Amino acid sequence: xxxxERVGKxxxxxxxxxxxxxVVRPGQVTGFLGPNGAGKSxxxxxxxxxxxxxxxxxxxxxxxxxxxxxxxxxxxxxxDAKALHPxxxxxxxxxxxxxxxxxxxxxVDEVLDVVGLTEAAGRRAGxxxxxxxxxxxxxxxxxxxxxxxxxxxxxxxxxxDGVLWVRGLIRSLAAEGRTVFVSSHLMSEMQVTADQLVVxxxxxxxxxxxxxxxxxxxxxxxxxxxxxxxxxxxEALADGGARVRDEGDRLAVVGASLEDVGRCAHRxxxxxxxxxxxxxxxxDAYMELTAEAxxxxxxx
Length: 300
Ligand SMILES: Nc1ncnc2c1ncn2[C@@H]1O[C@H](COP(=O)(O)OP(=O)(O)OP(=O)(O)O)[C@@H](O)[C@H]1O
Prior knowledge:
By secondary structure, the protein is of the alpha/beta class. It is about 35% helix and about 25% strand. The protein has two domains: about 1-210, Rossmann fold; about 220-280, 2-Layer Sandwich (Alpha-Beta Plaits). A six-stranded mixed beta sheet has the order 5-6-7-3-8-9, sandwiched between helices. The chain has a four-stranded antiparallel beta sheet with strand order 11-12-10-13, covered by helices on one side. It is elongated, with a radius of gyration of 23 Å. Keywords: ATP-binding, Nucleotide-binding, Transport. Belongs to the ABC transporter superfamily. GO terms for molecular function: ATP binding.
């Protein structure tokens, strides 16, 4: 479990995190969302004892990181995948970590296997691709078999295979009963990974709710229709009380079911190439939630 108690972090000229209280629970994936600069990395760094809160407390299993007796066995983190010794092999990097934390060296081969780096274990980390570096960072996070995991943007820069692999791993770590806290600035990513969503903007908590509730509450869930000529259909649906947005070669329809739209198109003899449920509503809800909080670097 991770507990934030009214945590604040002020850098000289900026408030990065503002009075943030939160409990991240075991057995589920908690997605930590917010626009760039919202304070996600700073919050995670405070959990990991790398930044000191200006106010409040960040606790892992009830204690500040600095007071954990065996920190790597309590919490593992992927914060900056590039923070590796480039001249060391993957295996030696993990061995050094194990030795300095009184972790049996046999764990090294176990975690290399989990992240799929067994073959590359003898190669210098400096020669690794971004995805391999990410895997090595995850191996380091897992080496102490911790109950709490913190991943900062773990799919950033990964190819589609890597993204799928990280998603699966994150889900299975939560299924094993661990606390998994994962940041992203992409709602679409969290939609397929998270059980619980925590959204921040400008360092403040905007939402903390189960994904299912956010989905249910997101208004605008609707229907997408694609076809060569949709004007007639758009007019008929609007006359019937639906809200219809013309998006060029497609319509976004809210307030009518798939069946309603299908029947209407059939009645009018309108040719359709696509008739599908629209999933964009969650992205919309997130954009709405964070719209006020987006920081435009150049305008401050
Ligand atoms: N060491 C630092 N010194 C000064 N300001 C900092 C420092 N670290 C972060 N900040 C500022 O704190 C705010 C929050 O940054 P943070 O990196 O935590 O956001 P984030 O949500 O992780 O963003 P991103 O998605 O871009 O990584 C930003 O305004 C940032 O410029």
